[in-house]
Write a structure and sequence with these properties.
- This protein has one domain.
- It is built from three helices and two strands, in the order H-E-E-H-H.
- The longest helix has 14 residues.
Length: about 80
């Protein structure tokens, strides 16, 4: 769901943990550590502009899926 939200130019709030680290590089991702931190990050996210174009997400776009998949297969 996180990738889909980012591709739709939505803001995403994620807890700071290892399983979410892959998403921290994207512009519309906001990271929090605990409940208190969540409220601060939520306010910051609400007041931040939405990034309409994040070239880091290109690998997730439908047009690039086959290329990415084949690139991964070629490294095996």
């Amino acid at each position: 769901m996180t990738v889909e939200a980012l591709l739709m130019h939505k803001k995403v709030l994620l807890r700071n943990c290892l399983c979410n680290e892959i998403f921290f590089q994207y512009k519309n991702v906001f990271v929090f550590n605990n409940e208190n931190d969540f409220h601060e990050v939520l306010e910051f996210a609400k007041n931040s502009p939405v990034e309409r174009r994040d070239s880091n997400l290109d690998d997730f776009m439908w047009e690039n899926c086959n290329r990415v998949f084949l690139d991964i297969l070629n490294t095996l």
